[in-house]
Amino acid sequence: MAKELVFGHQNPDTDAICAAISYAYLQKQLGYEAEAVALGEPNEETKYVLDHFNQEAPRVITRASAEVEKVMLVDHNEPQQSVSDIADVQVTHVVDHHRINNFNTSDPIFYRAEPLGCCSTVIWKLYHENQVAIPAKIAGLMLSSIISDTLLFKSPTTTQTDRDAVKDLAEIANVDYEAYGLDMLKAGTDLSSKSEQELIDMDAKTFELSGKKVRVAQVNTVDLDSVLARQANFETVINAENSAEDYDLFVLLITNILNSDSEAIVIGSETGLAAFEKAFAKKIVNNRVLLPGVVSRKKQIVPQLTEAY
Amino acid sequence: MAKELVFGHQNPDTDAICAAISYAYLQKQLGYEAEAVALGEPNEETKYVLDHFNQEAPRVITRASAEVEKVMLVDHNEPQQSVSDIADVQVTHVVDHHRINNFNTSDPIFYRAEPLGCCSTVIWKLYHENQVAIPAKIAGLMLSSIISDTLLFKSPTTTQTDRDAVKDLAEIANVDYEAYGLDMLKAGTDLSSKSEQELIDMDAKTFELSGKKVRVAQVNTVDLDSVLARQANFETVINAENSAEDYDLFVLLITNILNSDSEAIVIGSETGLAAFEKAFAKKIVNNRVLLPGVVSRKKQIVPQLTEAY
Question: Taking an 8 Å Cβ-Cβ cutoff, which residues of chain B contact chain A?
Answer without folding.
Answer: 97-115, 129, 298-299, 302-303, 306-307
